[in-house]
User: What shape does this take?
Amino acid sequence: MIAFILRRLLQSIIVMVAVAAVSFTLFRFVGDPISSMVGQEASIADREALRDSLGLNDSIISQFLRFMGDALQGEFGISYRLQMPVTELILQRLPATVELALVSGTLAFVLGLSLGVYTALKRRGILSNLIMTGSLIGVSLPTFLIGVLLIWVFAVELRWLPSNGRGEVVALGDWWSTGFLTHSGRLALILPAITLGLYQMTLIMRLVRAEMLEVLRTDYIKFARARGLSSRAVNFGHALKNTLVPVITITGLQLGSIIAFAIITETVFNWPGVGALFINSVRFVDVPVMAAYLMMIALIFVVINLIVDLLYYAVDPRLRVDRAAKAH
Amino acid sequence: MTTEPNPTPKEPSRLYRMWDSDLAYAFRTAPVAIAATLVALIIIGGAVFAPWLATMNPFNPAELNLMNGFTPPMEPNAFTGETFLMGADNQGRDMLSTILYGTRTSLFVGAMAVLFAMVLGISVGLFAGWRGGWVDSALMRVADVQLAFPAILIALLVFGIARGFIPDNLRDQLAIWVLIVAIGLSDWVQFARVVRGATMVEKNKEYVQAARVIGAHPVKIMFRHILPNVMGPVLVIATISLALAIIAEATLSFLGVGVPPTQPSLGTLIRIGQSFLISGEWWILLFPALTLLALALSVNLLGDWLRDALNPRLR
Amino acid sequence: MAEPLLSVRDLVVEFPTRRGILRALDRVSFDIMPGEVLGMVGESGAGKSITGAAIIGLIEPPGRIASGEIRLKGQRIDNITPEAMRKIRGKRIGMVFQDPLTSLNPLYTVAQQLIETIRTHIDCSEAEARKRAVALLDRVGIPAAARRIDDYPHHFSGGMRQRVVIALALCAEPELVIADEPTTALDVSVQSQIIEVLKDICAERGAAVMLITHDMGVIAETADRVAVLYAGRMAEVGPVREVITEAMHPYTAGLMSSIPTLTQESDRLVQIPGAMPRLNAIPTGCAFNPRCAKAFGPCTVERPELIAQEGGRQVACWLYDEAKRREVPHV
Assistant: This one.
């Protein structure tokens, strides 16, 4: 068990170092950091002096090590565009994105799982076919279009819900601001959460359905039926549990990617989160923000991956033997 | 189930055999697949023949009449008396013509991106599967890590990096190609995985070993023996990828980091249309949105059907 | 004669496909007496497993029972509600599948699966069910059953897993056990032990066994009677010794001569020429006629019915129809 965790941790660190290398390459070689920091009129001598003082003339290896050291302390430099420390910019906007991702992730998981199980069990039912066709529309509808259409119907025509912003937020301590506690904050969350969650929900649903159909065909399910277990016990006790094993991995990663998908939703709804920050950094080639965002997403991905692995380990008894044997 | 109760031992024609094949039968009996094909063909045809079908070139300022601005669909304009099937936008462009040209851009970027992803993915897959060893593990680890990140994020990053390298004055000119590479790079992994798997299996079969022994060139072996085995799955992935690429392009253009404003795609049109929602000119948004949805949905349905048809276990 | 435990009459099972309806079973009839072991033999695709699935009510859709009757102690079970059928499965008819590696749910311990099954059919406490489960595992020959019961299936070897499967099939004391190729997936070294355990434990409890296999050797050692299926039709039914020593149906005769024995004089196995027809291309008349050395006039025209013969035997072959033979004298 401990060997297994250590091995996974080591792998995670390798991934993080690789992503850091990509970020560093971005940071160092895309555009010219000097011209972003000084005006057009700076002399060549001035530039050279700045290069020296920033350490840009040191060896690449020592620059990379310094970058890593700074990154570990949460230092990503100053945004070219906004002239503010990148870390502060991201921390300011993180609560908005996290709250949005949490709500839509929960929505996607709960609905996706129940609809997937339903359509797998009632495979030939009319409602199932309707849901499956609907889900294809869901997959084909680009996220931004869902957002735009929802705004049209619920904000412009019906005027029920706000079309942009977070509504009123309440500060919780120094670092967090929440929209959960105010009425306008909760209202503002509805449309973005649906927009962000719908696509993920569709994917989870289709995955659960496919896996469950696969499990329902196995011998142990046939044998469970042949022993006269009730269909409830067969479907939920046996089939669902076995379905969940592969579903956990993919769903975990899916939910992790919600943070990245938030880029689109945040743009559509003017949601003041990190995604909107990132898209502007791409537009204006604001490299420090891009690099920091990449590192942040990679960190989230690695952490979720670790959690998923541990969950997997807890659910599937076979791994406890196989993995332990492999680790030795 | 393949033996025909055919009393005359006449060899059926090639065309007849294609018509009678399981895939063709599955197609003939699937109304959804037929409808999806029709819709896709109509949209693709409209895009390909846009210069001949459109009543005007919406991007030639000489053909525009600002007086026609905001004409609702099917209603004559109050000043000029002109009527537009799908209305006109703020600058008096015929929406239908604009959509035909927009779809042209969307489809071009989507198809080129899939082609790029396919060539890259198949090459990497063949190479990794054939060489094996550390080359294979290294390439597949890269693929795994990339697969964990959403394609749209990869595309955005590639796009952002490319913009950093390209001088300002060339950005608009090269934007479409940058976009194609960005979307293609975000989508090669699926192709690579399938091809690699098949290569690993086929490589050890005796006929491939025999071909190697007689000194056939590896590239020739791959094209003659290995690729034909994966055409089915590759076709399925390509179809689904096309839908994804069209959506990705539309998303990037909607976010304002895609095609240049001089060459709008469906995504650009939707972004423009969104700004007229509040003032009530709904047609500037609705028709491009419907076209994008119909295109993505029909291609997706086709891909989905194809996957089921080629994988009869799931039926 | 006593009332049969299971009685199958004119059973027809059909699978609709896009090129027409396939008849997997065509008017199959046979009985199983209480406590007896009936061997069901035939080549793969002859319909043995489908017969088993039909009896226990688990034919995969779109396959279905098109006509005929299945009676358990005189009561129809082919047309009852799914819920009523479910109560019969496991409780009155148990089933053992072919592959023990895939028959057990990998995520549950053996104890969990046994206790769940016992408590589904028998009203008892968890502790009581567990006690029964341990006793049963001990009986099917699992060493240190009380300790190993809490292991997961992947901790057991193939042979041990099949013992667990047998325990699961028998844990609610069914009157009939359908064993579908119970040893095919196992090592040769453990096959006979598993058959032994299955036979003994059923004999102890007075449960009848329908043993589906293509292995005539197993039938010869285990079964009381044997039923031979060919292309979805019953070819011959009779006491095992008689059928083996003097088979009536030419197909059975061919099947028997393919059993290797130590005393056999010829040094190679006799094979029946040709292959069993596909279900969509069954010849008219007797299904076996294209491969039969003794085929004559009526064999290609009219299908022979299963006719009772002396000594409790039944055979579906025109050779045993005096009237037909007289019509065509020169055979």
Summary: The first helix of chain A runs from residue 2 to 29. The beta strands of chain A are 170-172, 176-178.
